[in-house]
Design a protein that fits this description.
With about 775 residues, this protein is α/β, with parallel strands linked by helices. It has 28 helices and 27 strands.
Length: about 775
Amino acid sequence: MTSLTAGSASARPVPPTATYRLQLRPEFPFAAAGRAVPHLAGLGISHLHLSPVLEAVPGSAHGYDVTDHRSVRAELGGEEGLRDLAATARAHGLGLVLDLVPNHMAASPRHNHALRALLRDGPGSPYARWFDIDRSAGDGRLLLPVLPARLPEVRDRLRVGDGVLRLDDQEFPLRPGTEGLPLDALLDAQWYRLGWWRLARTELNYRRFFTVSELIGVRMEDPEVFAATHAKIVELVRDGVVEGLRVDHPDGLADPQGYLEDLAAATGGRCWTVVEKILTGSERLSAAWPVAGTTGYDALRRLDGVFTDPVGARRLTDLYREFTGQRADAGGRWEPTEERAAHEVAGHDLAAETAVLTRLAGRICAADPALRDHAPWALRTAVRELLVRVPVYRAYRTGGEEVLTPAAARAAKAVFTVPEEATAVDVVRGLALGALGEGPEHRAFRARFAQTSSALRAKSVEDTAFYRYVPLLSANEVGGEAGAPAVPVDEFHAYCLRISRDWPGTGTVLSTHDTKRSADVRAGIAVLSQCPEVWAELLAGVAGVPAPDPHVAWSAWQTAFGFGTPDPDRLVPAVLKSVREAGLRTSWTEPDTEYERAVAAFAAAGPGRVPLRGASAAALALEPHIRAHALGALLAQLTMPGVPELYQNTERAYRALVDPDNRGLFETGPDDDRTALVRAALRLRRERPAAFGAVGSYAPLAAEGPAARHCLAFARSGEVVTAVTRLSLRLAEAGGWQDTGLVLPDGRWADVLDGEREFGGGPAQGVRLAELFARRPVALLTRVGS
């Protein structure tokens, strides 16, 4: 890697004070981003965070389908445009952070130069080492599941000429010397096999991104592959164009820690680097990873949870079960829903991936006298059952024993009746931990098991169970805990104290390009945890709009309530996506068109037309409490430990649903109370970086009095105090703040959001919260004087 080194590895990158994420696309290229720089700099950020900038499939609206790591995407303005944007940003005091996509590339031979060369030249190609291909499957050729129907049905549409095989707008390179063969012989002579797209589920023999066959996995553990795919990024770091990196989906890599160490060495440690690592429950980021932290979904869960009422959330779950007819021991409970989804995904969507692991395990056992005579069915069952019981996205070699051993015990007990056959689970566990050997196939099994585990978790939880179990949709977010949506204040403080100590440069977010609902939509939904009976009344009021089933009715109406205003053009696609992802009555690959027409008609006539938030006086009365939640979560995010990121357009009220709805264009618009809050908080971060970035700079503040639980407050380095109202509806119902007070640290404190007000600190003169929150449900204070 030395040829890639951008500088001294001892250099310590300076974390941003705040970042702003822009979604680039051909309609919003580098030049357009440059025109937005003055506005964004005025918000107080320190860095622009750009979506992927390397060459991608033409027209791509996201850029994660990388086709060539050697060049900056021409549709965005090319490298010259990126360097011009960096110069513009620098002139306004801003740096650039890039979204780096190491795990996968577009599986399009027409556009992916490396894949095209591999298909043309076969295993002898220098690009053969780039991709995980299991040539022990089928006839050993690379299966390309790209045909719209079985080969005999599309054979007449195939065309040969100029060294390529064409089908409509798809192109496949021909093996040299085969162009003159008859078509059937030509097809058989290629290093690849064209197949019907449905074969991907069971026959695919290359590693992909989750279940997306259009994205092929890249072997970043190979030094030559790493060097070839990172030279341009390292050059941009060396030249000062790039100061930070967001690493997309590190769990898909064979060795995430090794990759990150290579990346740190190549960039000379000069980049602030965060990883899109989804932490589950109490799971923690490995201290051995050379990064500043995560992209912030762990913070998002705490921020959402601390503004969710646990009592009302439980009542909503009861109402959900009554409304949908779900039993508490089945689909009406999170754990069985999650486990059932995992089994379905492992046995169906990821059947090809589990087959690869079974073949690897079988060959290892056959070659090892100590492991022989495990039945293929037992190994296959053990692979599947252990995968579905891994409680996190993936187990790592360090700490993996604590994750996989209990999971293996549960798997063996659940599915094997003969103890001797249950030992197959021990074999799979041992292979997944790397405890049974260090041969090439042992290493391959260990890596592929971990990679498949992360794909299974993402697909079964984020993309399936979150759409099946929907009592409170605001909890069903990336990294969220649908079965335990509320986070106590003490737990929030404990998280912040730990982050301040261990990961002060980690990222924090409220909305991203991947969140299923923007923060404002989630705030609208989460307020229902404070008034479940109002929600029940609202549902009863729209019972006259017939829905295809109660599950879609509950989910669609709750989505519409969070969105706030009727908009069939945006709500109908989101509701259709939700039923396809749930896979209960229709799916992406096995659609029930009649059911989907009924869902679309219902969504258009009901949630897309009825103004649910204005349907009653009780619903209208919720608006100030939704605002209190939104402002409170925003101020807490902007001032808690870590580096806050604003997603594009969220400096104002921003209501967006699941992608592609939330991946639209950046827009400027009129300022609102949100914008003033953002500017005030980010100005403080920029002016007093030490107060926010220093290790151990977080101190919880506890309110005292009858309404103390409704105040979330903390100090940063004794220089800044954040105080916000939580569960404001419950607060109002209980009689308001009454004589509840908050003791500020010693000194005089000015209200940053209202320069006319000052408060005294110290135990002798606590501030009455009724006074502190008299003008707005949040307060941001800064110490004045010495």
